[in-house]
Amino acid sequence: MKPVRVLVVDDSTTVRSLIRMLLARDRNVEVVGEAADPHEARAAIKALNPDVITLDVEMPKMNGLEFLDKIMRLRPTPVIMVSSQTTRGASAAITALEMGAFDCVAKPGPGEQDSFAELLTAKVKAAAGSRVRLLSTSERAAPSHGSAALSVGGAYRPDGRIVAIGASTGGVEALVAVLSELPPNCPPTVITQHMPATFTKTFAERLDRLSRPSVSEASDGAPLTPGHIYLAPGGAAHLEIAPSAPFRCRLTKGDPVNGHRPSVDVLFQSVAKAAGAHALGVILTGMGRDGAEGLLAMRTAGAPTLGQDEASCLIYGMPKAAFERGATQKQVPLNRIAAEILRITCSE
Predict the structure, then answer these.
(1) Is 278 a residue of the active site?
(2) pLDDT value at residue 131
(3) Is residue 103 annotated as a catalytic residue, yes or no?
(4) 39 is catalytic
(5) pTM reported for the whole predicted model
(6) Between β-strands 228-231 and 103-106, what pairing exists: parallel, antiparallel or unpaired?
């Protein structure tokens, strides 16, 4: 197996050296070059033809987003954005993911180098085997709003179910595609998306602007109501559903599960216990196996379950694991998932 060849692009010599050192721990990854700005990076890409590029969001001469756009249009290559944990950095990272970046990692703080190395190495390897997908002009345009609702007759009335969604790598694009097609009175929806700690608030605000339902970061004790979508805060806690009616969000401290906090499995398990058959589980694109056991618990409890199909996934890992575990009743292309959600949850 040939090592994954990586180009590191960052204006900080210290950060470039750190990334090189940490990636060098894995003999299946090789840093073949470094660049301090997009102009150096452009020449390095032509000369080295790397398998994966790590790209700083904020750089001189041309920012990371402008350079990412050029890469995606002129020389499509898997790109992992490396961002500072600031509001500005988080906003730029979310935009980068929508533009076609493979994934984003936050620059490590004190004592976080080992976890950063493990995460970045896993993402680099996954990115090398991914399909780089160019977004067409129509896909980058604002969502159409409502085609899914029209597919179930236009007069959507929720039947009282809770919808639980899990996603990871590729989930930013996938969630925008799904949520932007839901009507204002959509079922109460809870989401766990693997994402750095300071990024989920920015992502929730972005989803809220693009969607007709209200989207917000979940808060402990928030009641689940129709027309509201709740995104698990990154990093600090797991999102669960409290078992007593009326259903409420519950943020719980605890160790990472499947390497993640928040964990999709924790969310799905709680929904299975709290709502049983009065729920719908959906698992979208992502690395690893998180969510497979929880989705199986939901199906065993009588809830219908959906998985994103392989052809439309950036990474088929999580949906594949759920399908192989027998947790997924039906696999659906991304562009049909919103319509399936509404069909299943529509009151007759």
Answers:
(1) no
(2) 66
(3) no
(4) no
(5) 0.91
(6) unpaired
